[in-house]
């Protein structure tokens, strides 16, 4: 029984993040909390972020979802923790473009581990899983900027 | 023409294809069924020879189209043991249920009245009642399930009272596979004077349904789940209740007389069928019913029982697989919902797809049930008349492959 | 691929048949159009290769079906110059207009507000507004027509005032053929702060329609009138208004989160698309739009203009024939409605049918207009891109035959 | 140009009745008036009937419709004027059965001129035109019997 291009989707790095996600939990001193769900499958991401002086001081996530959504959230939190909100917004845009199949090779390099999620493009039904956490962060930053 | 269930697979062109280099093992029949050649041919024939708008035309094509359309209404009526004027065509089960909720429920409900539904309802038989409850000030109450995944009939009995105005429940759960004792439930509801609405989306096409025997007040199902085209649904209603029920859509064809400020409607079923109906889809539905009858209920029921039992057993034999819903041997329909511990259903479904096995992963539009079961999502394999033991073996092998791949 | 309008007839298999031993002369295109081979093929291909329920599946077929379905949404958006999330799929124009009336109209109207419609509306853009007026206490006011069969713009201007909340009118009259000055009418309505709803059932498919240029708030049309399948309609709405607008049907797929007592909806367009949608029909609609574009607007418009002018003239030349609607040369679409003095339209249509000529006789779902015209019914010949001068000559010859037969 | 089986539908007798309908008008001393319309095409029949002692003393019709509906109304009024309501009900049943394609040859003979409308069966779109007046009379008798 051939498992075809499955290992394209589930690279070891992705499985590692999914099984041992980084920054899982809730922040005691979050000033932004956002829950997003993927209504198609029921994946949920609860993001808690501490944003001060236009900087992501700390970030954590909880919730429930498939290995792609969990790994993606883990990789994202690794990437943006400590970044300025401007920088994080740029990373989010790069990531979402990549998942729409229009990767900007230069920028994609900046995404760290998350760059590996480019392979999800070949599995259209899983794209929403990969983008859920990033869209939550986008909203969280948007809310923070409103204040 | 009598068809043989053993070769039924060959009647469905889509099943001949390969998916990811594997034979297609289509196990998402509860979402939508595939279409036999006869249904596709009926659609093609309609568009190539008879296409015209119905009821309004004096010319040959319009007569042909009208005759076929009304012929299918009679056919559906026979199929469910009802009268032709008790059969309304809609877009699907969802539309049928919304029309009952808004066109009938909202008319008869008073503040303080109670609507009883069950925790195993599909959102399509749940959200419309939430909305109507909100609109009318009625209260929405839930029948719970037992540990076995059956409706708690004792608690159902306790819920029923003089304030119960409408009871709405599914004939078959699209997650648990439970076949509810709908005849008994209808009797109990009628005993307190409540109207009974049945969601038959997962029942029709799997076993005969009989409006006279059930004695329910409304019954809804979809064409696309009984081997017919998308875009067509059925609402059965007792004649005298359809007279009370108000149309929800207004327009051409459903009127008797329109003046500038006032409109007078036709009688049922026409008063509900506003504008150009899904004519080709009605005709395709007729071909689907013919097809089902050419195979025959006893062959369909026997085949689906065999396949479901085999799937249940083969999945149960895989360590780490948890199955939801009643045991085999209980009143249970043609689907098995399960989880593989430690692997999210989405990931399971993706692995299965690489093996050509199409199953559904998610909440199956039944979030309150998911919450009751304490899971956020599950994997579901659901069967149609063309599925066989080979399909089931492929399913089990693919689940074992997923287990291996994720090392759980 | 560019197609030639001169041979377009050959693309429509139904037109090759004989009716009552005569070649079929199909002139009931305003009721429904015939379907090109490409649309039939798209439906067959979908059912034979890609059929699956959309949005919910993780497997290959479901991805294909979802991608094609959403692809057609983008295609429709381009076709009418709008954004994808402003395009909602419905069952047809009638459903589209009912949803606007109930989901938007009933939300924004207050007692005393005014709804302006016209006497030339099809019942589908009239009865829903009567109903909403009744429900909300708003007042329904009518724009009249001039002796030429055009809207009385001066009187329209007088009707508009600060109380006018909604203005709904047809782009093209299905009886008179009048093409209304919808852009100007929209500006005038917006100037008093009213929302504009346009019934485009008789416009789409005949000439390009452009939401950006029109700037209307809602626009409705049907697939089956633009060479697509039955069972599919379109509702365009401006993004910010779709946010305000409430769904009318509730069920699977349109929700974000359902708990026992409360439901949270998705954003537009998904929040309006409850339950299993007419998936195959959406895909067939996509093929119809492709087909129209392969012929090209300028060819379609020129051909229909030529055919309509010829029909008008040939019928006018028959003594005793009375034609309704604007003169040729005015802003007029592809149909001619007429009466033969002394012969009832039904009798005319029956004679025409024996000659293979399919026309419509009756009130055309526009009873208030019939009353205004002072007739109880009329005969209508309406054209599509495949009609030609031969069709028109057959029509005229058949009307002359009717005249002779009834000795009038 | 062949007019096919048209003269089957439009027999001379039908055309005569359509062009010169009998009992057209309104009754001054009607005790039942019924308006029925055929929503498909807009045909209207207004029937006025004087029913006393279970007998149709007088009957007339007005309205607007095609030659089939006008001829049918004319033939019907010829037939039932003076009949007992029981007899008229029997004629109506016979007529409606005939138009559904199940003529009872023996009874059909009693229908007088109206028997000729059997040919309408071959034109399904016109059946409703032929039956409109008869259904109006059925209702009128029904109303009279309620009193
Ligand atoms: C002007 C107009 N509006 C609305 C409709 C209704 O369209 P549909 O029957 O496809 O819902 C029609 C067609 O019958 C029409 O001509
Ligand atoms: C139990 C049940 N009810 C209702 C529905 C809704 O049917 P449809 O999507 O055809 O409207 C479904 C199918 O999705 C179902 O399984």
Automatic annotation (TrEMBL), chains A, D:
Residues 10-129 form the NIF system FeS cluster assembly NifU N-terminal domain. Pfam families: NifU_N. NCBIfam families: SUF_scaf_2. This is Fe-S cluster assembly sulfur transfer protein SufU. It comes from Lapidilactobacillus mulanensis. InterPro entries: NIF_FeS_clus_asmbl_NifU_N (IPR002871).
Automatic annotation (TrEMBL), chains B, C:
It comes from the Bacteria. Its cofactor is pyridoxal 5'-phosphate. Signal peptide: none annotated. GO terms for molecular function: transaminase activity. Residues 25-395 form the Aminotransferase class V domain. InterPro entries: Aminotrans_V_dom, Aminotrans_V_PyrdxlP_BS, Cys_dSase_SufS, Cysteine_dSase, PyrdxlP-dep_Trfase, PyrdxlP-dep_Trfase_major, PyrdxlP-dep_Trfase_small. Its EC number is 2.8.1.7. Keywords: Aminotransferase, Pyridoxal phosphate, Transferase. It holds the Pfam family Aminotran_5. Transmembrane segments: none annotated. It catalyses: (sulfur carrier)-H + L-cysteine = (sulfur carrier)-SH + L-alanine. Catalyzes the removal of elemental sulfur and selenium atoms from L-cysteine, L-cystine, L-selenocysteine, and L-selenocystine to produce L-alanine. This is Cysteine desulfurase. It comes from Lapidilactobacillus mulanensis.
């Amino acid at each position: 029984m051939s498992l075809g291009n499955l290992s394209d989707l589930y690279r070891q790095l992705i499985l590692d993040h999914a099984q041992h996600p980084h920054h899982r939990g809730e922040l005691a001193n979050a000033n932004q909390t956002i829950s997003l769900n993927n209504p198609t499958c029921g994946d949920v991401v609860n993001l808690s972020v501490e944003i001060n002086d236009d900087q992501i001081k700390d970030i954590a996530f909880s919730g429930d979802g498939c290995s792609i959504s969990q790994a993606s959230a883990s990789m994202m939190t690794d990437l943006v923790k400590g970044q300025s909100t401007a920088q994080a917004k740029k990373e989010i845009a790069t990531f979402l473009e990549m998942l729409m199949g229009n990767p900007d090779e230069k920028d994609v390099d900046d995404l760290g581990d998350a760059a590996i999620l480019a392979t999800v493009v070949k599995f259209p039904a899983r794209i929403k899983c990969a983008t859920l956490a990033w869209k939550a962060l986008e909203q969280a930053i948007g809310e923070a900027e409103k204040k | 023409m009598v068809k043989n269930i053993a070769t039924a697979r060959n009647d469905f062109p889509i099943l001949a294809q390969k998916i990811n280099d594997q034979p297609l093992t289509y196990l998402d029949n509860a979402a939508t069924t595939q279409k036999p050649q006869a249904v596709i041919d009926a659609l093609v024939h309609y568009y190539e020879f008879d296409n015209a708008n119905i009821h309004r035309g004096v010319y040959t094509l319009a007569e042909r189209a009208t005759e076929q359309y009304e012929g299918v209404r009679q056919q559906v009526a026979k199929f469910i043991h009802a009268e032709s004027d008790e059969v309304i065509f809609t877009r699907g089960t969802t539309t049928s249920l919304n029309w009952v909720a808004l066109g009938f429920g909202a008319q008869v409900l008073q503040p303080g009245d109670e609507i009883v539904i069950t925790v195993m309802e599909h959102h399509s038989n749940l959200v419309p009642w939430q909305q109507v409850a909100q609109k009318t000030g009625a209260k929405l109450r839930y029948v719970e399930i037992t540990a076995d995944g059956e409706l708690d009939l004792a608690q159902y009995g306790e819920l029923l009272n003089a304030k119960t105005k409408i009871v709405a429940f599914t004939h078959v759960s699209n997650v648990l596979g439970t076949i509810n004792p709908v005849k008994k439930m209808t009797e109990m509801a009628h005993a307190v004077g409540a109207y009974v609405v049945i969601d038959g989306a997962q029942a029709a096409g799997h076993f005969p349904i009989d409006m006279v025997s059930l004695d329910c007040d409304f019954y809804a199902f979809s064409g696309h789940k009984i081997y017919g085209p998308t875009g067509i649904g059925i609402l059965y209603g007792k004649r005298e209740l359809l007279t009370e029920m108000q149309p929800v859509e207004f327009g051409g064809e459903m009127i008797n007389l329109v003046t500038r400020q006032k409109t007078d409607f036709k009688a049922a079923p026409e008063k509900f069928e506003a504008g150009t109906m899904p004519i080709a889809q009605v005709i395709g539905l007729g071909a689907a019913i013919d097809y089902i009858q050419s195979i025959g209920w006893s062959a369909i029921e026997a085949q689906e029982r065999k396949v479901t039992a085999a799937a249940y057993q083969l999945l149960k034999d895989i360590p780490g697989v948890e199955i939801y819903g009643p045991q085999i041997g209980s009143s249970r329909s043609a689907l098995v919902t399960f989880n593989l511990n430690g692997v999210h259903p989405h990931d399971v479904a993706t692995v299965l797809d690489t093996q050509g096995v199409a199953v559904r992963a998610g909440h199956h539009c039944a979030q309150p049930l998911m919450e009751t079961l304490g899971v956020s999502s599950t994997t579901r394999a659901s069967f149609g008349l063309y599925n066989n033991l080979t399909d089931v073996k492929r399913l089990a092998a693919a689940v074992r492959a997923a287990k291996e791949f994720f090392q759980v």
